[in-house]
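Model the whole thing, not chain by chain.
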Amino acid sequence: MTTHLYCVLPNERRGDLPADLRGIDGARVRSMQVDGLVAWVSDAERGVPVSIDGVRAHDAVVEAALETGATPVPARFGQEFASDDACRGALENYSNSVTSLLADVQGFVEMTLILTPSTRRMLRDLEPGFPAMIDPERPGAGREYMESLRAREASTGSVRRSLDSLAQTLTEATMAFVRRRAVHDQVTRLPLRTISHLVSRNDVANYKEAAFEVSSTTEFRFLVIGPRAPYSFCALGNRDTGLHGMKLAD
Amino acid sequence: MAALHAIARALPERINADPDRVEQGLARLVLTVVELLRETLEHQAIRRMDGGTLNEQEVERLGLALLKLNHRMDELKEVFGLTDEDLNIDLGPLGRLR
């Protein structure tokens, strides 16, 4: 059995753990005091494979922490601690950074903007054809392949420029309510932009209103996600970017 | 050289030595590098075509070679059970390959 860490909260929130809160695989979530912090943890089987259900269960516990009124610092999903002592030791190693981070995010939540081409635009970009579908035995196949590569590059560049432009417009529209900004790397082949903002809890409605005043177009649109725990603002000063929750271990 | 350093940073710090999966892990590493080179070649080929430094026969020959390389890569990915996303490495400050 190992210990799974969900998040940490300020010590004064030690009594806020909801009774019978369940985490990964239905395990009971319990609180553990570490150096003036409270960590929410549960038992977990060793080597549990990463799954969507696991990520959802992890996030549900972090969301429950956010609902206490304090802002938790979420742990990155997938870290495995051999025991409560190992988890406590890892937190103690970063005690100053975690305490400082926790103080820094109190009163704030994360809002995330996801910018994407519309289905109509994506279909239009497919029109030049899939290069891989060209039959190499057909006369002129080499020229046809080169032309399809050129068309694909041109449409990709145009999509990127349009998404950058929309991102800039949204950044300007919401700037007054943003304390910090994090831009996520693209992780799929789909042309997306993902930008997270740290926003005061009191400004969430204003932030949304400002974002929705920017019009989506028939070709590009955006989603506003949040408020949620500040997963994208968890850098502890180690090698990790802190873009997916705080990372204390492999 | 800078690109190689970027790839080195993107590779996992630990290799999964599970005997049942080590072959796929190695294939993924090798094909990732090949894919990076293939896409660089394609990009360069388009630049040369647009720059007018290739005659019609050279465009056809180059295009055919790249098309066949593309097909060969698809076959290799299928053999090792890999997807495009498996080869979409993180080049650090340069972003993702695609």
